[in-house]
Structures are given as structure tokens and as C-alpha cells.
């Protein structure tokens, strides 16, 4: 072995760092897996952002009522999933949520607040059930639950902030274009789910 | 020159993270206790949501909730120190209290002051009793429990104080959203206990 090879070997040995072969355990592992669960599913992301966008289109008080109501109803769906009560057509419901909510944004539909809350709540049950079935396997269930609820809320916030562009005429077109993208994605998810 | 360069590079790569130690004996236990309410998720969530509720209630709620909370917390910690249990699953009870407080925060309902006092006393006692320490000397146990009392007190007073200062409508909404998140998390874990 030449001197250069020897130095290179030593250098490589020194440079090596701790292997991260496993997912984080405990609180951190539970939180990160819960946080990533909604973010890694395009169907979840599309629907959550659509809730925020629609809230922004509907204006006050829907802009904050929908993001408060969604996690509460989602938790009920999640509880059903945790307990093991089956919910038929979960994937179809999630895909339909992106299609329907995207269409609401596209068409700028303004139903009474109660109707909007009920519609969003129905879809929240499906999303919650999908997250809830994963919860019993989490490293730390409470941290997992907190992680996915926070991620969901932040996705709503993304939708709301983007939806605030409706204050300007060109922004309204952009937001409705966002609705088109979400509705089309929802249609694709629905075709795959059926 | 090449050898020196290589040696210099290796020496540069060698340093690892510095792990500093506590210079005063017993402080580590006190500090561990101080962080305990933050590091145990069920305690942290319960404290957070109760602080949000008290902050929403304003100065009047603070006046009626702090004394019973701090007194009951001290009592609970003493019970934990002498290894007395309440005989219930403390986490489930804490999560139930968290759920109720979270719903009240999300709805932003004005409450009678006596309810703040009752909830403060109950929560303080639960957190205290559930903060037991094992394999510590008497002095270390005292340091850890004192740290826990102080950590929970600081957490409650600081968060409630900040929330009370939030007067803009969007800030009040943000507090309610936070309440709904905590409620949802607590409900899910309570459901897990029913399996």
C-alpha cells in the first residue's frame, strides 16, 4: 500500500459518521413519522391545501372555522381507525375529497358556513381514518398524533396563505387555477382508487 | 509536505461534539426535573392547553387558577416523592383533562372562575403524582421534584402570559386552532386506550 493510499484510507475512516439505519424511536420517531404521513401522500396534501384555499375564498369566519373543525372531526375518524372500526371506501373518500374541494375552489362556490363545515367534516373522517389506522404501530402514539395533526394544520395554512391572493383580481385567477390542479389530481386519484 | 497536509486534514476531521458536564453536583437532577414537564408529551400537552385556556380567560382566570395549581402540584410531587400512587392510569386521566381543556379553548367559551381553580388543582395534582423518580437519593429526589415544580410553574405562567397578551383577532384564532390540534391528538390517543 502506497503512502497516498494509506492516507486516503485513514481519511475515509475518520470521515465516517454514525450510521442512521433505523427510523428514530420514541418521541422523535413517533412525531416525525406522524408529521410525514400527511406530507408523503399527494392525495392528503391536495385535499388539505384545498380546505385552506376554500376557507380563504369563503372569507371570515370560514377561513378559521374550517381549519378548527377539520382536525376535530378528523380525530373522530382517526379514533375509528385506531379502535379498528372499518370504514368502507377510505381511499375513494380521500380521492373524492381532492376532486370535490378542488372543484369548490375552481368554481368559487359559496355555500352557507354550516354546509361547508359538514362537507369538509365528511371528508375529514376519511383522512382521519387513514392516519388513525397507522397510529397503533407508531413509536410514540401521542407524538405521532401530534405530528400528523400539526402537519395537516400547516397544509391548511399553506392553502389559506395562498388563498389570500384572492384580494387581488389576478390572485383570484391564480387561486382558481390552483383549484383546477387539485381537482384534476383528485380525478386521477379517484380513477386509481376505483 | 503531502504527509503534513494529509495529517492536518485528518486532525481537522477528528474533533467530535463536545459533551459538557454540569459543574455543580445535583444540578443535573434539578435540571432534569425542570425539563420533565416539557419532555413528557402528556404533561407538556396538558400544561400547554391549560395555559392556553387560562390565557384566554385573562388576568381573572390567572388569579384563580395559579394558586390551586401550584399548591396541588407541590402536593402531588410530595406524594410522588414518597412513592404514593393515585391508582389510575395517570396518562389517560391527563389526556381526558387535555381533551376537555382543548375543546374549551377551541370553542373559546368564557368559564366561571371556580372551574379554573378546580381544573388547576386537578391538573397540578395529576402532573405531580405522575412525576415520580426512582433510584435517586433523598437529596437528588428533592432537587428533581423542585425542578419539576419550577418547570411546570414557569411553563404555565409564561404561556398563559403570552396568550393573554394576544389581542389581535388572528392571534386569538391561532390559539383556538392550537386548542383544536391538541384536542384531536388527545382524542386519538384516548381511542388507542380503548382498543
Which whole number gives the mean pLDDT of chain A?
82
Q: Give the overall silhouette of chain A.
A: globular
Q: Helical percent range of chain A?
A: over 70%
Unreliable residue stretches of chain A: none
Please give the count of helices of chain B. 7
Strand-pairing-aware structural class of chain A:
mainly alpha
Structural class of chain B: mainly alpha
Order of helices and strands of chain B: HHHHHHH
| Uncertain stretches of chain B | none
Main interface by residue count: A-B, 35 and 31 residues
Report the β-strand fraction of chain A as a percent range. Answer: under 5%
How many DSSP-defined strands of chain A? 0
Explain what this protein looks like in three dimensions.
- The complex is a heterodimer of chains A (about 190) and B (about 200).
- The mean pLDDT of chain A is about 80.
- Chain A has about 190 residues and is an all-alpha fold.
- Chain A has one domain.
- Chain A has helices at about 5-15, 25-40, 40-60, 60-85, 90-105, 115-130, 140-165, 170-194.
- The relative contact order of chain A is 0.21.
- In chain A, about 80% of the residues lie in helices and about 0% in strands.
- By secondary structure, chain B is an all-alpha fold.
- Chain B has one domain.
- Chain B is built from seven helices and no strands.
- Chain B has helices at about 1-15, 25-40, 40-80, 90-105, 115-130, 140-165, 170-195.
- Chain B is globular and about 80 Å long.
- The interface of A and B includes residues 10, 14 and 146 of A.
Amino acid at each position: 500500500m502506497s503512502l497516498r493510499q494509506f492516507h486516503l484510507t485513514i481519511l475515509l475512516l475518520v470521515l465516517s459518521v454514525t450510521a442512521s439505519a433505523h427510523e428514530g424511536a420514541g418521541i422523535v420517531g413517533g412525531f416525525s413519522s406522524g408529521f410525514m404521513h400527511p406530507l408523503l401522500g399527494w392525495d392528503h396534501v391536495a385535499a388539505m391545501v384545498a380546505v385552506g384555499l376554500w376557507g380563504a375564498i369563503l372569507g371570515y369566519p370560514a377561513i378559521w372555522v374550517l381549519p378548527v373543525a377539520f382536525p376535530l372531526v378528523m380525530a373522530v375518524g382517526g379514533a375509528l381507525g385506531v379502535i379498528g372500526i372499518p370504514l368502507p371506501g377510505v381511499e375513494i373518500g380521500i380521492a373524492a375529497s381532492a376532486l370535490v374541494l378542488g372543484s369548490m375552489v375552481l368554481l368559487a362556490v359559496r355555500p352557507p358556513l354550516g354546509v361547508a363545515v359538514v362537507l369538509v367534516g365528511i371528508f375529514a373522517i376519511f383522512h382521519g381514518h387513514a392516519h388513525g389506522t397507522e397510529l397503533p404501530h407508531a413509536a410514540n402514539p401521542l407524538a405521532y398524533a401530534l405530528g400528523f395533526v400539526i402537519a395537516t394544520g400547516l397544509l391548511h395554512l399553506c392553502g389559506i396563505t395562498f388563498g389570500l391572493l384572492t384580494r387581488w383580481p389576478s390572485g383570484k385567477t391564480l387561486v382558481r387555477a390552483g383549484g383546477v390542479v387539485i381537482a384534476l389530481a383528485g380525478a386521477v386519484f379517484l380513477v386509481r382508487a376505483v | 509536505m503531502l504527509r503534513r497536509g494529509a495529517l492536518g486534514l485528518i486532525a481537522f476531521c477528528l474533533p467530535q461534539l463536545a459533551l459538557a458536564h454540569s459543574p455543580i453536583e445535583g444540578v443535573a437532577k434539578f435540571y432534569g426535573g425542570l425539563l420533565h414537564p416539557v419532555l413528557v408529551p402528556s404533561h407538556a400537552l396538558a400544561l400547554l392547553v391549560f395555559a392556553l385556556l387560562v390565557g384566554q380567560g385573562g388576568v381573572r382566570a390567572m388569579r384563580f387558577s395559579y394558586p390551586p395549581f401550584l399548591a396541588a402540584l407541590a402536593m402531588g410531587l410530595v406524594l410522588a416523592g414518597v412513592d404514593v400512587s393515585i391508582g389510575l392510569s395517570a396518562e389517560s386521566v391527563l389526556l381526558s383533562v387535555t381533551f376537555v381543556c382543548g375543546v374549551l379553548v377551541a370553542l373559546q367559551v368564557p368559564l366561571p372562575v371556580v372551574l379554573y381553580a378546580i381544573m388547576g388543582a386537578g391538573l397540578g395534582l395529576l402532573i405531580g403524582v405522575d412525576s415520580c423518580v426512582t433510584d435517586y437519593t433523598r437529596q437528588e429526589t428533592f432537587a428533581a421534584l423542585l425542578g419539576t415544580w419550577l418547570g411546570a410553574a414557569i411553563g404555565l405562567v409564561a404561556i398563559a402570559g403570552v396568550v393573554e397578551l394576544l389581542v389581535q383577532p388572528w392571534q386569538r384564532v391561532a390559539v383556538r386552532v392550537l386548542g383544536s390540534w391538541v384536542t384531536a391528538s388527545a382524542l386519538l390517543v384516548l381511542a388507542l386506550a380503548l382498543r
